[in-house]
Write a structure and sequence with these properties.
It contains 8 helices and 2 strands.
């Protein structure tokens, strides 16, 4: 085989690898994808579930088959637990594992660090409160600001700046700022055209999606091709 033919074959192999990032990620030995119930490789959120299990953002507590239940509404304690586990990946353990319920140390961390907003609109929220899309955006943006991570997220002005969500004026002030900041960084998107639906609940799949996107930007959890 001559050198030119060898280069062509090598290029084709590299192209094939680039076009199949999920296969590469999920077929290696010990892949957590084999133990997920209710999740198919054809699901849009499959890559996020695989990455979430791989990096400990979601956990298979039973050690057996893992059921993710992607359409279930995510609660405040579930969301800050995922966010806290993401933070642990880059900064070490939060609190003392095994001391009480696991979510409590993440919830206390989020309160102490100001990630859960000190605002009248948030008074009375309990760990079991189902969060909405506006609150999801606020929690993520506060995490980014508290830990000074904004430099990891590229601002997109051209085209994106013209696409403000139609309910922009209907959002709370804290929610409006967070949604707009994340929108300009392509971290969140509209539902049904240009509607963001800020009061809609957040599914576990949607919650995990944005957590993994943050992790991919800051901690390099997943190759950028996985986010396409």
């Amino acid at each position: 085989m001559n050198r030119k033919s060898s280069k062509v074959i090598t290029s084709l192999l590299l192209l094939a690898l680039l076009l199949s990032p999920i296969t590469i990620l999920t077929t290696c030995r010990g892949s957590p994808a084999r133990n997920i119930e209710g999740v198919s490789p054809d699901d849009w959120f499959y890559r996020y579930v695989v990455a979430g299990l791989r990096f400990g953002i979601i956990a298979n507590e039973s050690g057996g088959r893992f059921r993710f239940e992607p359409d279930e509404d995510v609660t405040l304690d579930e969301f800050v637990t995922m966010l806290g586990r993401l933070h642990e990946y880059g900064h070490g353990t939060i609190g003392t594992p095994g001391d009480g319920l696991d979510y409590e140390r993440y919830f206390e961390w989020a309160v102490e660090r100001g990630i859960i907003l000190a605002h009248p609109d948030w008074d009375g929220l309990t760990p079991c409160t189902r969060i909405n899309r506006e609150q999801k955006a606020a929690l993520v943006m506060k995490y980014i600001l508290v830990y000074d991570l904004d430099d990891y997220f590229q601002l997109h002005y051209y085209g994106v700046a013209l696409g403000t969500f139609w309910e922009h004026s209907q959002m709370s002030l804290w929610g409006r700022a967070a949604v707009e900041m994340l929108r300009l960084r392509l971290m969140i998107s509209a539902r049904y055209g240009m509607f963001f639906r800020p009061q809609d609940s957040v599914s576990r799949a949607e919650a995990l999606q944005i957590i993994i996107r943050v992790g991919s930007a800051v901690y390099d959890l997943v190759h950028p091709l996985m986010m396409k």
